[in-house]
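User: Quick sanity check before I run a bigger batch. Here is a single chain. Can you write out its predicted 3D structure?
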Amino acid sequence: MTADTPFIEALRRIEVPGWPAGQRGAALDRFLTTGMPSTRLEAWKHTSLEALERLVLHSPNALAGESVCPDIAAYPGHALMFQNGQLSCHGTYLAKQIAGTLNHLADTQPVHRYLGKVADDTALASLNLALWQDGARVYLPADEHVSLPIFALYGAAEAEAMLYPRTLAVLEHGAEATLVEHYLGQTGQPYWQDAVTEIVLEDGARLTHLKVIEEGAAASHTSLTAVRLGRDSEYRALHIGLDGALVRHEITVDMAGPGATTQINAFDLADGHRHADLHLRVNHRAPSGTSRIAYRGMADDHGRAVFDGHVVVDRAAQQTDARQSCRGLLLSAKAEIDAMPRLEIYADDVKCGHGASIGNLDRDALFYLQSRGIDLALARRMLMQGFAAEVLGLVEHTHLRDWLMPRLLAAMARSTVPEPMP
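Assistant: Done. Predicted structure follows.
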């Protein structure tokens, strides 16, 4: 995949609606100039894409009539479902102007104003901007409140396909919603999803955002979530990484308005030979902002989890309150967790702190549970569930427990075979 041909050919195959055509060409030129990220870059030193570059990937074929469409009833809210880069089915009852697809709404004002304007021009973001085919567009006018979650499902069912999901969410002042992105692998063969999500919250808007990654066992997933916050707006996010051979998710939050609040909770499970990399950058640029970051990572077998949390407090961001908590749990002597919480502070009237710890399952707790007649595998699972529960508060708030927890527990069940620790 090192040659330019697959990307140029993919761009030729896209039927662009009007104005994005020029934007796509310029974005592809930027990507071809820089190429794929490598471990020589500081931000990528823990994650190599060499295995991905060796694959012979192609644009997905047209959606077949018999393509599998997951049961919409399984999603407790408004749903837009994309498969192999195209809309496959929907169960949304929202007005089209609130929740629809980028392909159909490309000429609307929010898309013109914000598409490609919130995310940075990184190599993979530029590639997505060049080659996206469709994705969810959520737009809430001022003071609009949507009580049920809005789901955007991005399924992948074709081996060796390269997919570029794009999501754009714009909430005007005072609006409130819950957005759930679900990346679901429907094949065990290799493929690549390179996703970009752009979110704009105007003054006083509030968004709860869940991103659940359940790619196929041989899949690669790279994604960028870019958020811009206005005055007194609130962004609450939950990242759940459960499957995929390689998963790299980057979240950047621009806290541009005074009094903005960011809460990012994250859980990654790196079992087998999985590689899970979560990069966060929260930039406090205005006074009286609050940010909370809580990461919990588990690594089992030969898995590796990476967390890089970078909080920047600009000189103008006085009275900032920023906290990070990072904890890792090693379930195998061969597993690895790299934790790098960081603070970069240029203001003098702030309350900032961070902490990180990595350890094993508590032997005394395991012994206690076994002494009460609980077998070792179940005891391990109980402690793992308690560890993950520390960052799952948003699940209760959004009433999505019945939808999410079975997925989380099924993934944890893969990592309950005891292995002696050193």
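Residues 20-34 form the longest helix (15 residues).

User: Great, the batch can go ahead then.
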